[in-house]
Amino acid sequence: MTSLNQNWKNFLEKGDEFSFSIIYNKYVEELYAYGISLGFQKENCKDAIQDVFIKIFLDRNNISKIENKSGYIFRSYKNRLIDLEKKNNNKDNIDSVEDKFTIEVTILDNLIETEIANIVKEKIKKLLESITPNQREVVYLKYVVGLQHSEIAEILGIHEESARKLLYRAMEKLRNKISNDELYLIAIYFMLLRFII
Protein backbone atom coordinates (compact mmCIF):
# COMPACT_ATOMS: atom_id res chain seq x y z
CA MET A 1 0.00 0.00 0.00
CA THR A 2 1.36 3.41 -0.97
CA SER A 3 1.76 5.92 1.83
CA LEU A 4 0.27 9.40 1.75
CA ASN A 5 3.79 10.84 1.54
CA GLN A 6 4.47 8.73 -1.55
CA ASN A 7 1.22 9.95 -3.11
CA TRP A 8 2.25 13.55 -2.43
CA LYS A 9 5.62 12.85 -4.03
CA ASN A 10 4.02 11.25 -7.11
CA PHE A 11 1.59 14.11 -7.51
CA LEU A 12 4.07 16.93 -6.95
CA GLU A 13 6.89 15.48 -9.05
CA LYS A 14 4.93 13.79 -11.84
CA GLY A 15 1.49 15.39 -11.73
CA ASP A 16 0.03 11.93 -11.12
CA GLU A 17 -3.76 12.35 -11.09
CA PHE A 18 -4.40 9.05 -9.31
CA SER A 19 -2.15 10.11 -6.43
CA PHE A 20 -3.94 13.46 -6.36
CA SER A 21 -7.31 11.70 -6.06
CA ILE A 22 -6.01 9.67 -3.10
CA ILE A 23 -4.84 12.87 -1.40
CA TYR A 24 -8.23 14.48 -2.08
CA ASN A 25 -10.10 11.48 -0.65
CA LYS A 26 -7.89 11.50 2.45
CA TYR A 27 -8.88 15.08 3.33
CA VAL A 28 -12.35 15.67 1.91
CA GLU A 29 -14.43 14.32 4.80
CA GLU A 30 -12.22 15.82 7.48
CA LEU A 31 -12.35 19.23 5.80
CA TYR A 32 -16.11 19.07 5.37
CA ALA A 33 -16.66 18.15 9.04
CA TYR A 34 -14.26 20.93 10.08
CA GLY A 35 -16.14 23.51 7.98
CA ILE A 36 -19.49 22.46 9.43
CA SER A 37 -18.00 22.68 12.94
CA LEU A 38 -16.82 26.19 12.15
CA GLY A 39 -20.47 27.07 11.47
CA PHE A 40 -20.38 27.41 7.69
CA GLN A 41 -23.17 26.29 5.37
CA LYS A 42 -22.89 22.90 3.68
CA GLU A 43 -22.69 24.33 0.17
CA ASN A 44 -19.92 26.75 1.12
CA CYS A 45 -18.00 23.87 2.71
CA LYS A 46 -18.27 21.81 -0.47
CA ASP A 47 -17.33 24.77 -2.68
CA ALA A 48 -14.33 25.65 -0.52
CA ILE A 49 -13.03 22.07 -0.68
CA GLN A 50 -13.22 22.13 -4.47
CA ASP A 51 -11.55 25.54 -4.64
CA VAL A 52 -8.67 24.49 -2.38
CA PHE A 53 -7.97 21.30 -4.32
CA ILE A 54 -8.18 23.06 -7.67
CA LYS A 55 -5.61 25.53 -6.38
CA ILE A 56 -3.40 22.69 -5.16
CA PHE A 57 -3.67 20.92 -8.51
CA LEU A 58 -2.84 24.03 -10.53
CA ASP A 59 -0.13 25.30 -8.19
CA ARG A 60 1.68 22.07 -7.36
CA ASN A 61 5.15 23.53 -8.01
CA ASN A 62 4.74 25.97 -5.12
CA ILE A 63 3.07 23.36 -2.89
CA SER A 64 6.18 21.16 -3.08
CA LYS A 65 8.08 23.76 -1.03
CA ILE A 66 5.58 23.52 1.86
CA GLU A 67 6.66 21.11 4.61
CA ASN A 68 3.40 20.92 6.57
CA LYS A 69 0.91 19.98 3.88
CA SER A 70 -1.97 19.06 6.23
CA GLY A 71 -1.67 22.37 8.02
CA TYR A 72 -1.53 24.18 4.69
CA ILE A 73 -4.66 22.42 3.42
CA PHE A 74 -6.70 23.11 6.55
CA ARG A 75 -5.59 26.73 6.75
CA SER A 76 -6.28 27.31 3.04
CA TYR A 77 -9.70 25.74 3.51
CA LYS A 78 -10.55 27.90 6.51
CA ASN A 79 -9.41 31.04 4.68
CA ARG A 80 -11.45 30.07 1.61
CA LEU A 81 -14.54 29.54 3.76
CA ILE A 82 -14.11 33.02 5.22
CA ASP A 83 -13.67 34.48 1.72
CA LEU A 84 -16.84 32.75 0.49
CA GLU A 85 -18.76 33.96 3.54
CA LYS A 86 -17.64 37.53 2.89
CA LYS A 87 -18.56 37.25 -0.77
CA ASN A 88 -21.98 35.76 -0.03
CA ASN A 89 -22.75 38.37 2.60
CA ASN A 90 -21.27 41.28 0.62
CA LYS A 91 -19.52 42.44 3.77
CA ASP A 92 -16.01 43.66 4.32
CA ASN A 93 -16.10 42.51 7.92
CA ILE A 94 -17.18 39.10 9.11
CA ASP A 95 -17.67 37.84 12.64
CA SER A 96 -14.62 36.02 13.86
CA VAL A 97 -14.74 32.32 13.06
CA GLU A 98 -13.41 31.63 16.53
CA ASP A 99 -16.68 32.91 17.98
CA LYS A 100 -18.67 30.29 16.06
CA PHE A 101 -16.79 27.03 16.47
CA THR A 102 -19.04 24.23 17.72
CA ILE A 103 -18.86 20.49 17.92
CA GLU A 104 -22.20 18.81 17.38
CA VAL A 105 -22.66 15.81 19.61
CA THR A 106 -24.68 13.48 17.41
CA ILE A 107 -22.56 10.39 16.89
CA LEU A 108 -23.82 8.59 19.98
CA ASP A 109 -27.39 8.86 18.70
CA ASN A 110 -26.39 6.62 15.81
CA LEU A 111 -24.52 4.14 17.99
CA ILE A 112 -26.76 3.76 21.03
CA GLU A 113 -30.44 4.73 21.07
CA THR A 114 -30.85 4.74 24.83
CA GLU A 115 -31.44 7.14 27.65
CA ILE A 116 -27.81 6.74 28.68
CA ALA A 117 -26.71 8.07 25.29
CA ASN A 118 -28.82 11.18 25.83
CA ILE A 119 -27.33 11.73 29.28
CA VAL A 120 -23.81 11.31 27.90
CA LYS A 121 -24.56 13.61 24.99
CA GLU A 122 -25.84 16.37 27.26
CA LYS A 123 -22.91 16.00 29.64
CA ILE A 124 -20.38 16.29 26.80
CA LYS A 125 -22.25 19.21 25.28
CA LYS A 126 -22.21 21.11 28.60
CA LEU A 127 -18.54 20.34 29.12
CA LEU A 128 -17.62 21.55 25.65
CA GLU A 129 -19.67 24.71 26.17
CA SER A 130 -17.56 25.41 29.28
CA ILE A 131 -14.45 26.02 27.19
CA THR A 132 -13.87 28.85 24.73
CA PRO A 133 -14.56 28.48 20.99
CA ASN A 134 -10.80 28.55 20.32
CA GLN A 135 -10.29 25.77 22.83
CA ARG A 136 -13.11 23.72 21.26
CA GLU A 137 -11.48 24.18 17.85
CA VAL A 138 -8.06 23.06 19.03
CA VAL A 139 -9.58 20.03 20.83
CA TYR A 140 -11.43 19.13 17.62
CA LEU A 141 -8.34 19.48 15.43
CA LYS A 142 -6.21 17.42 17.82
CA TYR A 143 -8.57 14.65 18.87
CA VAL A 144 -11.08 14.38 16.03
CA VAL A 145 -8.95 15.24 13.00
CA GLY A 146 -5.74 13.95 14.60
CA LEU A 147 -3.45 16.82 13.62
CA GLN A 148 -0.09 17.56 15.21
CA HIS A 149 0.53 20.72 17.23
CA SER A 150 2.52 22.25 14.37
CA GLU A 151 -0.37 21.67 11.96
CA ILE A 152 -2.89 23.14 14.40
CA ALA A 153 -0.64 26.17 14.90
CA GLU A 154 -0.48 26.74 11.15
CA ILE A 155 -4.26 26.47 10.77
CA LEU A 156 -4.93 28.90 13.61
CA GLY A 157 -2.12 31.24 12.61
CA ILE A 158 -0.34 30.97 15.95
CA HIS A 159 2.99 29.61 17.20
CA GLU A 160 3.27 25.90 17.90
CA GLU A 161 3.87 26.57 21.59
CA SER A 162 0.69 28.67 21.72
CA ALA A 163 -1.26 25.77 20.19
CA ARG A 164 0.13 23.44 22.85
CA LYS A 165 -0.82 25.85 25.62
CA LEU A 166 -4.31 26.37 24.19
CA LEU A 167 -4.90 22.61 24.09
CA TYR A 168 -3.38 22.14 27.54
CA ARG A 169 -5.61 24.84 29.02
CA ALA A 170 -8.70 23.36 27.37
CA MET A 171 -7.96 19.89 28.70
CA GLU A 172 -7.08 21.26 32.13
CA LYS A 173 -10.38 23.14 32.26
CA LEU A 174 -12.27 20.00 31.26
CA ARG A 175 -10.39 17.90 33.84
CA ASN A 176 -11.26 20.34 36.59
CA LYS A 177 -14.96 20.06 35.77
CA ILE A 178 -15.26 16.30 35.54
CA SER A 179 -14.32 13.02 37.16
CA ASN A 180 -11.87 10.54 35.65
CA ASP A 181 -14.79 8.38 34.47
CA GLU A 182 -16.33 11.33 32.63
CA LEU A 183 -12.97 12.22 31.07
CA TYR A 184 -12.69 8.64 29.85
CA LEU A 185 -16.17 8.94 28.35
CA ILE A 186 -15.18 12.09 26.42
CA ALA A 187 -12.03 10.38 25.13
CA ILE A 188 -14.13 7.49 23.82
CA TYR A 189 -16.55 9.96 22.22
CA PHE A 190 -13.77 11.74 20.33
CA MET A 191 -12.22 8.44 19.28
CA LEU A 192 -15.56 7.25 17.88
CA LEU A 193 -16.19 10.59 16.23
CA ARG A 194 -12.83 10.40 14.48
CA PHE A 195 -13.54 6.95 13.04
CA ILE A 196 -17.04 7.78 11.83
CA ILE A 197 -16.32 11.19 10.30
TrEMBL record:
It comes from the Bacteria. One of its GO terms (molecular function) is DNA binding. Coiled coil: none annotated. GO terms for biological process: DNA-templated transcription initiation. Keywords: Sigma factor, Transcription, Transcription regulation. InterPro entries: RNA_pol_sigma-70-like, RNA_pol_sigma-70_dom, RNA_pol_sigma70_r4_t2, RNA_pol_sigma_r2, RNA_pol_sigma_r3/r4-like, WH-like_DNA-bd_sf. Residues 122-174 form the RNA polymerase sigma factor 70 region 4 type domain. It holds the Pfam family Sigma70_r4_2. Belongs to the sigma-70 factor family. ECF subfamily. This is Sigma-70 family RNA polymerase sigma factor. The lineage of its organism: Bacteria, Pseudomonadati, Bacteroidota, Bacteroidia, Bacteroidales.
